[in-house]
UniProtKB/TrEMBL annotation, chain A:
<comment type="similarity">
    <text>Belongs to the binding-protein-dependent transport system permease family. FecCD subfamily.</text>
</comment>
<feature type="transmembrane region" description="Helical">
    <location>
        <begin position="205"/>
        <end position="229"/>
    </location>
</feature>
<dbReference type="Pfam" id="PF01032">
    <property type="entry name" value="FecCD"/>
</dbReference>
<keyword id="KW-0812">Transmembrane</keyword>
<protein>
    <submittedName>
        <fullName>Iron chelate uptake ABC transporter family permease subunit</fullName>
    </submittedName>
</protein>
<keyword id="KW-1003">Cell membrane</keyword>
<feature type="transmembrane region" description="Helical">
    <location>
        <begin position="160"/>
        <end position="178"/>
    </location>
</feature>
<dbReference type="InterPro" id="IPR000522">
    <property type="entry name" value="ABC_transptr_permease_BtuC"/>
</dbReference>
<feature type="transmembrane region" description="Helical">
    <location>
        <begin position="286"/>
        <end position="304"/>
    </location>
</feature>
<keyword id="KW-0472">Membrane</keyword>
<keyword id="KW-0813">Transport</keyword>
<feature type="transmembrane region" description="Helical">
    <location>
        <begin position="67"/>
        <end position="88"/>
    </location>
</feature>
<feature type="transmembrane region" description="Helical">
    <location>
        <begin position="316"/>
        <end position="335"/>
    </location>
</feature>
<feature type="transmembrane region" description="Helical">
    <location>
        <begin position="100"/>
        <end position="122"/>
    </location>
</feature>
<dbReference type="InterPro" id="IPR037294">
    <property type="entry name" value="ABC_BtuC-like"/>
</dbReference>
<keyword id="KW-1133">Transmembrane helix</keyword>
<feature type="transmembrane region" description="Helical">
    <location>
        <begin position="249"/>
        <end position="274"/>
    </location>
</feature>
Length: 343, 331
């Protein structure tokens, strides 16, 4: 890549800074609210190691892992979406359309329907089997799309079309499975494919955190390459980018991010598609800002879960709220920033 | 081009007739071709005649209507958004219909597939108007990118509401999950007669829209300089799509994928000229839908696999093969 130069613009940085502050605030509020309400000072005290044993339990065992799962999953989905959209150069590209999400859905719903009707999915099988099936389904579908789209290199257009094919198979198969089992299984499957943070613990936080720790820096470095890729293959080659290698590598990163996130919380709707578009419009950049997408994705999911937990006595799955919350906001941004059509 | 395309159309017509005959003959009760002839033209009321006239013919006709509507709707959609990802559902039509159906189940206790028709159609209309207004708010009227994004946003919103209702109320889920797969089984002629006027108007509008679409595919500026009124053309097209896809969803639930795949298949025959692309898409859509339905009847005897599922299982591998092999005509 040769010498690297950065031009820092103020607006994207401001947006990221504001979003980070917001993120921290939402995290604290998220931990405060629940059946045992806590005050801000109690939360901060407990996080620093103080507090009563009850506070410790509520914060560290119940609310913190759930909030962190939401934050990390949202960040991973946002980043994954941003990478896909930048590579494919299409605002509709996201893990949802490139097979990952519905592949994961098909895997998990298969487990619920087939093992559920045999009475197998209880306890450990449910807590371990579902995420694993989701992870496997997502990875298989994503990599299948990648492999089938490979023809002397990867081309965004072809990959999207192959992705649509695989998504259609997995999605319709999932809908079919919903009609096969009894209605209880269908209900549980619906919760999973909507995406939920109910009962998520540290065992869900750790894999996503590991994936993000490794892949965010990788993606950010790759993002510099991505900037060059936006110009199209010929120009990028002219600029000295090895197009296929860079693109393949980033696509695999995006697939893994989306799969891990989906395995932890189910395919939370709309985050991967909307986050990069929201970030792009807030930051006023020409392509989805990667780090901005991480932060805004995390904030979106955590805020949605907060709403889901408080708005209705029966807890709604977070996926319902991300759509209901994120969609109007994207609409507002669309209407407001219409002067030039971007991407 | 003209002559070759005419031969192609004729060929597809013949295939369609063959598929129709197969659709009438094949099912959980096999009827020989002589029986099909007997049932169609000289019915005497024997069991086979009743099966043909009451079940198979309505199902086949609905299949043709829906296949044509979704094929043409898909081609228009991809033309107007200039986005190969744009499935007719992207205008929010499918999810709007789904929300209306779920509300009709949840609030009014509607529980028959035929009872959903008008709710589905109204929902489809409302969603599509919302998307159009949202996508064209501000200066410059509706642009492909904003239309697609507005559609995705409205769809996500509606889908979220559907999930919320279905998750809170198990009875709604139980009814909804059977609507959601999309099937042309179990409908009688009244379903077809109710949606047919909308489909016909939609097809006529689509035919008028084709020359304008050709100009638009050169870019808006070029189209303007050719004397095309961009806003009018686009509005007309969107209205046609809404009628076609809304009618199809009302008749048989969301049948995804076909509206998306058919134009790509048709484009491989015709190239980008919409005057040919639209009729080819219509025929390919009808053939594909009927074929998938037939396979769905045979593959899991004595029960059936719904056409929406079969379409994806059959169509997707073929589609991927096509994507890999041919040089696809870009939009």
């Amino acid at each position: 890549m040769g010498a690297t130069s950065f031009r820092l613009r103020r607006r994207p940085l401001t947006v990221v800074a504001v979003a980070l502050v917001l993120l921290a605030a939402v995290l604290v509020v998220d931990i405060m609210i629940g059946d045992f309400p806590l005050t801000v000072s109690q939360v901060i005290d407990t996080l620093l190691g103080g507090g009563t044993r009850r506070d410790q339990f509520v914060v560290m065992e119940l609310r913190m892992p759930r909030a962190l799962t939401g934050l990390l999953v949202g960040g991973a989905l946002g980043l994954s979406g941003a990478i896909f959209q930048a590579i494919v150069r299409n605002p509709l590209a996201s893990p949802d359309i490139l097979g990952v999400t519905w592949g994961a859905g098909a895997g998990a719903v298969s487990v619920i329907t087939f093992a559920g009707s045999l009475g197998v999915v209880t306890g450990s099988a449910a807590s371990l089997g579902l995420p694993l099936a989701g992870l496997a389904g997502g990875l298989v579908a994503g990599l299948l799309v990648y492999a089938l789209a490979w023809r002397q290199g990867i081309e965004g257009f072809r990959m999207v079309l192959v992705g649509i094919g695989i998504t259609a198979v997995a999605g319709n198969f999932t809908h079919y499975l919903l009609t096969v089992g009894d209605v209880q299984d269908a209900g549980r499957a619906m919760v999973w494919i909507t995406g939920s943070l109910n009962g998520r613990g540290w065992e869900h936080v750790v894999p996503v955190a590991l994936a993000l720790v490794v892949l965010v820096p990788v993606a950010l470095i790759g993002g510099h390459v991505l900037g060059a890729l936006q110009f199209g293959d010929e120009t990028s080659r002219g600029l000295g980018v090895r197009v296929n290698v860079a693109r393949s590598f980033l696509i695999v990163v995006a697939i893994v991010l989306a799969s891990v996130a989906t395995a932890a919380a189910g395919p939370i709707a709309f985050v991967a598609l909307a986050t990069p578009q929201i970030a792009l419009r807030l930051a006023g950049t020409a392509q989805p800002p990667l780090f901005g997408s991480v932060v805004i994705g995390g904030a979106l999911v955590m805020l949605s879960d907060l709403v889901a937990r408080t708005i209705y006595r029966t807890e709604l799955p977070v996926g319902v709220v991300t759509a209901v919350l994120g969609a109007p906001y994207l609409m507002y941004l669309l209407v407001r920033s219409r002067r030039e059509a971007r991407l | 081009m003209g002559r070759k395309s005419l031969v192609g159309l004729l060929f597809l017509l013949i295939v369609l007739v063959a598929v129709c005959l197969a659709s009438i003959a094949i099912g959980s009760k096999e009827i020989p071709l002589s029986g099909v002839w007997h049932g169609l033209f000289t019915p005497t009321g024997v069991e086979d005649d009743v099966v043909i006239r009451e079940l198979r013919v309505p199902r086949t006709l609905i299949g043709i209507a829906v296949g044509v509507a979704l094929g043409v709707g898909g081609a228009l959609m991809q033309g107007h958004t200039r986005n190969p990802l744009a499935d007719p559902g992207i205008l929010g039509v499918t999810h709007g219909a789904a929300l209306a159906v779920v509300l009709s189940i949840f609030l009014l206790g509607v529980d028959s597939l035929v009872g959903y028709i008008w709710f589905a159609f109204a929902g489809a209309m409302i969603a599509s108007v919302m998307v159009f207004l949202l996508g064209s708010a501000g200066r410059g009227g509706p642009s492909p990118v904003t239309l697609a994004l507005a559609g995705a946003a409205v769809s996500a919103l509606m889908h979220g509401l559907v999930s919320a209702i279905v998750l809170l109320d198990q009875q709604s889920l139980d009814a909804f999950r059977f609507w959601q797969v999309g099937t042309i089984a179990g409908r009688d002629m009244s379903v077809l007669t109710q949606v047919l006027p909308f489909l016909v108007v939609g097809l006529v509008l689509a035919a008028f829209n084709a020359p304008g679409l050709n100009a638009l595919s050169l870019g808006e500026d070029v189209a303007k300089s050719l004397g095309v009124r961009v806003g009018t053309t686009r509005s007309l097209g969107i209205f046609a799509i809404t009628l076609l896809v809304g009618g199809a969803v009302a008749a048989c639930g969301p049948i995804g994928f076909i509206g998306l795949v058919v134009p790509h298949v048709a484009r491989a025959f015709t190239g980008p000229d919409y005057r040919w692309l639209l009729p080819f898409s219509a025929l390919v859509g009808a053939i594909l839908l009927l074929f998938a339905d037939i396979v769905g009847r045979v593959v899991a005897r004595p029960s059936e696999v719904e056409v929406g599922v079969m379409l994806a299982l059959l169509g997707a591998p073929f589609f991927i093969y096509l994507v890999r092999r041919k040089k696809l005509v870009k939009i």
